[in-house]
Each structure stands twice: as structure tokens, then as C-alpha cells.
Amino acid sequence: EPRSPCCCLAWALLIGTMNSLVFLLNLLLMFVIFTIVLLPTIVVVYFGFQCHSQVLHSSARYCKSILDDNSSSALIILGFVIMSPLLVVAMAIYCSLARRLQLLVCFQPYSLALYKGGRWCRRGEGALCCARGCNTQLKAWV
């Protein structure tokens, strides 16, 4: 049965807030995973650009004694070459965690705001999600 307009607005705000929190949690998880996995690339490219004479030309001791322009260029190239496989690894780790934690299933439909009778239930391994009638055969992806 349909909800009253005020109740519908309150539920829509609640569901919108919850969906925004789930989205931010997904974004934070993705940011942390990508930062950790891509850290070697970030460090290598940073030192390559920092010590190259045409870019930043730092006066640090390691730039003068260890890295010249050729080795700085090699670091920059190496960093961009290893970025592609590390991006694939980071995305695989994120997708695996998102699937295990069932984060993508926890987005709530706005039909809960319009009609009474939608039920909150626990699905699978403890992710709090909503489904009409708590159908356990429903999956986010195969």
C-alpha cells in the first residue's frame, strides 16, 4: 500500500542517505586499495620526476650521487610500465572484497519509500540488504 507524502519523503531521505553512505564506503575502500597497490608506481615516478634536470631537479643528495637524467628517465618509464598490471591487480582486489562484503547489493531501492511492505533482511554472509520477501536466490552478479 502507498505511504503518505510526508512518510514517503522521510523514507526517501533515509534511503538516499543510506545509499550515499554505501557509495562513500565503496569509494573509500577503492581509494585505499588503489593507493596501497599503486604505491610502488607512485614512488618510482615521483623519484624519477624529482631528480630529472628538466622537471624538478632536486638538490637532494641521492639525486646528485645516484640518479642522473638517464636513470631518472628510466624510473619514469618503469613507473608507467608497471602501472597497467598494478591497476588490474587493484581492481581485482576491490571487486573481490566488494563481492565478499556484498557492498554492491546493499543499495536500497526507492520503492521502499513509496510503498509499505518492503522488508529489511540479512542476506548471505551478514550484509544488511533489502529484498521483498527476502529472496535468497537473488545475486548481484554471477
From TrEMBL:
Coiled coil: none annotated. The keyword Transmembrane helix applies. Signal peptide: none annotated. It is found in: Membrane. The lineage of its organism: Eukaryota, Metazoa, Chordata, Craniata, Vertebrata. The keyword Transmembrane applies. One of its GO terms (molecular function) is PDZ domain binding. PANTHER family: TRANSMEMBRANE PROTEIN 88-RELATED, TRANSMEMBRANE PROTEIN 88B. Keywords: Membrane, Transmembrane, Transmembrane helix. The chain crosses the membrane at residues 21-49, 74-94. Belongs to the TMEM88 family. It is a multi-pass membrane protein. This is TMM88 protein. One of its GO terms (cellular component) is plasma membrane. InterPro entries: TMEM88.
